[in-house]
Amino acid sequence: MSGFSTARQKMVDGQVRPGDVTDNRIIDAMLAVPREAFVPASQRALAYLDLDLDVSEGGSAKRFLIKPLVIAKMLQAADIKDTDNVLVAGCAAGYTAALVAKLAGRVTATESDPAMAAKARDVLAELGLGNVTFRAGAPAEGDPANAPYDVIVLDGATGITPDRLYRQLKDGGRLVGVFAMTQPQRAMIVTNSQGDFGNRALFDAAVPVLPGLEPVPAFVF
Fold first, then answer.
1. Which of 48, 102, 129, 216 is at 20 to 30 A from 81, Cα to Cα?
2. 166 near 148, Cβ under 8 Å?
3. Is the backbone peptide bond immediately before 184 cis, with ω within 30 degrees of 0?
4. Residues forming a β-bridge with 88
């Protein structure tokens, strides 16, 4: 086993499985997708640690790969089927989009940094994951052209209610993400039932907020 393959196995065995991730499709995806391929060369030694990894490379806004366990638990809650049409909002370097590509039939991934979106597209092409379409755009906007979605995954936190994303869910569709409006912050699943969006808390989590989904500052007298 190479050093990265060993680190990938240790990530799954030491972080993901103990966090009650039992879906073998997600386990297999995390063992198959080389997380180190999605980070700058200077950060590759950190690729499998339990942290939100900065992959910005001097971009205008900080962009992160969020903790492996957090994304694994959100994907398990989303219950993605191999026929599902999925949106990954704010995909950063594309790691979550690659995991979702192993689970879903069709994936759209949005990223506000065009250069990062282009790099993500190149990495997924090298990995042979051809069922992902990348769009340069704000996470909050989604991609209405490929809607409605069975599942929307926020690849980071939101500090506001992402109404535009809700409207891109099909009836019965699910959105998973970390909601930073609560203390502590919580990963949530939101389900569309004929235009009524019910939510359920999944677990406590704190990850960086996505660009454009920052909380609105409160007015102070």
1. 48
2. no
3. yes
4. 109, 153
* Cα 218 from Cα 138, distance rounded (Å): 23
| Tokens at 185, concatenated | 């912050």
Sign (positive or negative) of CA dihedral 6, 76, 212, 145: positive
Q: Which long-range contacts (CB under 8 A, 24 or more apart) does 142-148 make?
A: 142/87, 142/89, 142/110, 142/168, 143/87, 143/108, 143/110, 143/168, 144/168, 146/85, 146/87, 146/106, 146/108, 147/87, 148/85, 148/173
Structure tokens at 183: 């203390």
Question: How far is Cα of residue 68 from the mean position of the Cα atoms in its chain?
Answer: 10
Spatial separation of the C-alpha atoms in residues 157 and 134, rounded to whole Å: 20
Q: Cα–Cα distance between 96 and 30 in angstroms, integer?
A: 10
- If 0-12 CB within 10 Å is exposed, 13-18 middle and 19+ buried, where does residue 59 land? middle
pLDDT digits over 175-220, tens only? 999 999 988 999 999 999 999 999 999 999 999 999 999 987 655 5
Global pTM value: 0.94
Question: What is the CATH T-level fold of the domain 3-204, as seen in this structure?
Answer: Rossmann fold (3.40.50)
What is the torsion angle, in degrees rounded to the nearest 10, for the CA atoms of residue 159, residue 207, residue 37 and residue 75? -80
Q: State whether the Cα torsion 200-205-211-217 is positive or negative.
A: positive
Domain spans in the chain, listed from the N-terminal domain onward: 3-204
3-state SS, residue 73? helix
